[in-house]
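Kindly inspect both lines:
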Amino acid sequence: MAGSVGPGTLALAEVRRFPNRPVRVNGTLHWDILGLYGNVLDGLRACPPGLASAGIDSWAVDYGLLDERGALLGNPVHYRDSRTDGVMERVRAELGDDLLYGTSGLQFLPFNTLYQLAADDLSRARTLLLVPDLLAFWLTGAIGAERTNASTTGLLDVRDGIWSAPLLSRLGVPAGILPPIIEPGAPIGTLRPDVAAETGHPGLAVTAVGSHDTASAVAAVPASTDRFAYISCGTWSLVGVELDAPVLTAESRAANFTNEGGVDGTVRYLRNVMGLWLVQESLRAWGGPDLPSLLAEAARAPALRSLVDPDDPEFLPPGDMPTRIAAHCRRRGFAEPRTPAETLRAASRLSGREIDVVHLVGGGSRNELLCRLTADASGLPVVAGPVEATALGNVLAQARAAGAVGSLAEARALVAATQPLRRYEPSGDPAAWDAAEERLRGER
C-alpha cells in the first residue's frame, strides 16, 4: 500500500497484492519467508519515486533465527504447526502461571513465541527476529525488536517494557539473541545499497510502526473518546479495549485476557478469538463459493440454532473445517464461551473501562451480517470501518514520525474524517443472546 497524508488527507493506493501460502515440508508447516520478501521488493519497485519512508507490519509471535553471520537458519515455522502441542502445559507446570502472567500479562495460547522457543533448537542461533523485524533487517541491515510485536512473545516484562532476564533464564533462552527494543515511530535505517538499486528507491528510510498488525489497526480506530471497544476482525478477531496500564489481576489471568503493547505506550487489553479463520477454511473446503451470496443465505437461516465455540483447540490447525464444525455441534461439548460479545462485557468489567461504542475494523467490517450480529449480541452500537485499518495505522505512524500528523487522537480524527464508516444499532431481543450464552456454557 502507498499512502499519502496531509491536512485533511489520508488516502491509500494498492500497489501490489500477493498470496501468503504456508508450505509443509517433512511434516512441518513453514512460512515462505523468502517468497514474501521477494514480493516486498516487487511492491517497492512498483511504488512511485519520492516516497518519504516505508513501514512493515505483520502477524505476531513467529520469528526467524540468524547465525553468527546473519544468515537465516531455516524458514520460520508457522504458529499453527503442531510442534507446540503440549509445550504450553509443560512450561506452565515448570515455571508457574504467577511468573508467566505476572511478567508478560499475556494470554495463554499454545503458539506464543516462548512456547515455540521451548520446542526449538537454539544451539546455533545468535539473533532472533520477529517477522517484520526480519524483513526490515534484510532491507536495511539494522537489527531491532519493535515493541508492540515484542510484547506478543511472552518474554517482555509488561511493566517496564524490557526483556525479562528472570524469565529468559528459567526458559533457558540466551538473552543475547534478543535485539534491542525500538518504539513505533523510531527510525530503523535506510535501504541497503543493493536493495535501493534493485527497487529504485535510494536513501529510502524504513520507519518502525506498530509492527504487530493489530497494533497498527487499533491506532487507526476512528474513536473520539476513550470509551470504546474494538474488534480487529480478520483471520483472528482481537476483541478488547485500549488502556494506559496493564491489568495483571488474578481475575484477568483466569479470564485469559492479554496485555499487548500499543502505539504511544498504550496497552491493548484483549482476547484473541478465532475469528474468520473458520469461515476462510470452510470456504476453501467448499471450493471458494461466492461469499456475498453465502452470507445472504446465512442471514435468512434461523438464529442461534447451532452454537460453536470458535476457540476450541480443534479448530486451530488448517484442514477440513466444515467437518470439524459439524462434529463439534453434534457432541455439544461446549467449553466456556469465547464470543466477541461476551469478551466485550468481560473486558469492560475487568478493566473498569466503560464502553459506549464498538469499533469493528479490518476485513470483517465489510461483512454486514457480522456487524449486525455483533451489535445485537453486545447491545452496543457498532461502527464498521475502516477496512484497511492496519495499513492506515502503519502509514499514520510513519506520517507522525515525519511530522505530518500530531497526536494519536489527531490521527484517529483524520481517519474518522476521511474513511467510509457505517453505523449499526442493536436490535432484537437481548434475552435470546443471553439464553444462547447459557446454552454454550452447558447451563440448562
